Protein 1
Amino acid sequence: MTLSDPTTRTVRTASALNEAFERHGVRMAYGRNAEIYAQDDAVELLYQVVRGVVRTSRLTLDGRRQVGDFYYAGDIFGLEPGPDHRFAAEALDDCEILVVRRSAVRALAGDAALDRAILEAQRLEMERLQEHVVMLGRKSARERVGSFLMSLVRNPDDGHVDLPMSRQDMADYLGLTIETVSRMLTQLQGEAIVEFPSSRRFQVRKWTALEALAA
């Protein structure tokens, strides 16, 4: 692997970002539903989730909300290509976030490394967006809910899986009504594909059936 290898550049960029967070990052605590930054705020800081889950969302002109994505421990967010945040970011639960100024990253890593980090973030966000568009455009309500539940399972051997987002969060992310989401979850539980011991935790009972819904 040479220095011109894209993989090498990505590793060096990630290392520079991680070093900036380690050296200059400030740990901030946010309570449940607390705003981390607002839609259209100027981009001055970068963020990394240490603990908890972060939700990004955007309000349309007619007041409807679109949930953009969810970020978990280790994820970096707030890397925007432009000067302003297109989405707001809120803590879904009690969160601990590492915060670092873009200027500190630029001073440590240099302009080129920061620009590569932004391009890499854009690439990953584009992949997520493409998957999201396919899901919204081609999948039924049942398939969307099944796909979403599967995306939360990090390990097939896990027991119970936390569901930190509300039914409304799921609905706004999946482009469904909250009634439809609740009905689909009830159906999946009734068919013993998943089991909900509580509203914020579930367990996969029929992995193959859930995989088929997400395929």
Protein 2
Amino acid sequence: MTLSDVSDAAARISDIYAGKYGIARDDDWFLLKLQEELGELAQAHLRLSSRGRGEATEQQRADEAADVLCQLLLYFRRFGIDPEEAVRRKWLRWLEPQGEPADPALSRLLP
């Protein structure tokens, strides 16, 4: 499964969710929903590290991390940001100090 596949699936699921619950997804909703999901991930993390009330499982942490990832992809989609290009431009450029990737295995990720 590619990042694009996950993004497409997340968009379809978000459409179903919004329709079922009558949610109007404006620009603010995408950011606020991402923040909500990040808070739920933080809560699971704190519970697993005995710094939060109640208990959590590794499965719950993984589920919340998946929510954050999918919601972030929806945010990218909403604002027309290509996540792969953004990562190449912002992060992967640091791996090519002389124009060559520092790790040959990463060359397939670079333009």
Protein 3
Amino acid sequence: MLRDLIIDKELFMELRERALTSEEGENSPEEVELLEKAVFKRLKKKRSIKKYKKLGVTKGDLNEIIELADIIGLDTIGGPSNYELAKAHQEWCTICGRCCTESESIFIHKDELNILLTFNPELENGIIHNKLYPEHFELKDIQPCKFMHPETKRCAIYDSRPQVCRSYPLVLIDSNGKAKNIINLRSECNYSIQLILEKSIILFDEAIRRLQDKPRP
């Protein structure tokens, strides 16, 4: 019910199917399900069903809002973008180190290569051409990333780290010729969970506002 106040149901189903079957990013259906369950546990504490029971709100509405938060940017409804939310809440990162130990590639844009090498000249022999985009670059031997301290999980090149590291858990992709940030959904990543949770809260509140403003029969 609530989700339908934000987006047309058929359009949502189309976008959801596309997101779950897309090869962009690393978001498998299983990982999406695990993350959504983790978000649900937190959302039901933030937005109690009992408070909105008279409006007909159910647990199913919470699940539907979370599913919507996974696939759309809030800037489509006049809210903050994924990037703006992530940038404003860097405290969500618990420095667990998983993104540094499990990443398959650390992408380096050709325009940031000189800056990276200026501050870290020792990297010159540790950078190779990117496998998918040969005009760009990537770090080699990064599982785990050799710049992460194994005990403190701190990054040795943090102040000059590549943009892809700065933006995580957002992943920049090319969608029909237009760049956009998608969330790398990791159920073990507090940053990802909190980002989807924050989007879900904003969407929930907006849907409730629209529901309350809706003319009664």
